[in-house]
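New to this. Explain these tokens.
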Amino acid sequence: MAERRPAGAGGRATVVVRGGTVIDETGERRADVLISDGTVTAVGPDLDIPAKATVLDAGGCLVVPGLVDLHTHLRQPGGEEAETVETASRAAALGGYTAVLAMPNTNPTIDSAAVAREVLQLGETALCQVAVAGAITVGRAGQCLAPMGELAALGVRLFTDDGTGVQDAGVMRRALEYARGLGVTLGQHCEDATLAAGGHMHEGAWSSRLGVPGVPAAAEELMVARDIMLARLTGGRVHFLHLSTAGSVALVAGAKAEGLDVTAEVAPHHLSLTDGELSGYDAVFKVNPPLRTECDVAALRAGCAAGTIDAVATDHAPHPPEQKEGPLDVAAPGMLGLETALAVTLEALCAAAGDEKGKGAMSLHDVMALLSWRPARIAGLDVGHGGDQGGPIGVDGPANLCVIDPSERWEVDPDHLASRSRNTPWAGRMLTGRVRHTVYRGEPVVIDAEAQR
């Protein structure tokens, strides 16, 4: 039996998502979804379609809670030539995201209530929810703690000096102790600056062959190990950003087995690309942390399947052309991710999509968990924390969802991406899996893979 409630008589439009397979934290079922006045009002097979309803065709598709990105560089304020909150939110919606977490390495840094309010206000007219991560230290300089209490009062739930790891263990300890009292999470960019200094790619066979200074895996793993020890010492909650090495996965697995309050994310490009991509010295493949080896890629995929990795986060990092077209030693690290993350993740991890390298690893349900409800929980955007992201899709639930065609093949054309920048490593490549529709708080913001505003 379908769950039924009367459709709203006024306010926002009535929407019916028709003919799809609903996948959320509660499981999988064939169902239509009726949305009225921004809320899910019925879920079940073959629902009656109200007059004047907007009908979104989901035939052959998955209907899932909106994706949530834990790691988005919006660049605004200060980097508007590369991206703005508005352009990034359009890219996010096209990629199926109904919420993104803005990283604080802007200019000025999001290390004060005033800057956080500015970004939150810019997000009020965005095509998805824009949440804010605050800096751990003032100016991300690694010395004085930012006013975390003031930022937490605005709803900031995650703090990070992303782009640079907190190098001083004493500062990180104090931050964890303070964060524990506030009930917030510290996200760490794991990189020992002394070991990473001067490196532009992974230190290994390819860096030796190309004559390019490298960043050893130990630069990441030392900080992962240190912060696991600090989490044990303080009882604080640590989220490890964009892990890239097999050793990091093993360390996090051990910490979780011990019962420590740690979580971890991986970026789609680290699940699918290796340091060999830099054989042509193309800076579009320069990223921080760097692309690693095939063994690291395999370990990251296994970590996702085993539950050691909690989330896939895009690390969407737009750059204007002049910052990516130079030689490796001067080019900025980073690549676009919001519009391609879903397809890249499906191909890397899911048994129902991708090439032979990805077959048999994870179910669609488990991959959606990595992209939607688990990151929503880490960011404090889920219903359990007073938010409305991550589902489940049910009566009286929030109407944040996306419709995914897991079998659609499409070619990535940088000139047709929504971002202001074009630094995608997938240019000209065919990917499998695409978002057909995205509904944000009851409003269809993407219909038939086209943004509506």
Summary: The chain has two domains: 15-63+395-451, 66-385. The CA atoms of residues 262 and 411 lie 37 Å apart. Residues 217-234 form the longest helix (18 residues). The chain has twelve helices and 19 strands.
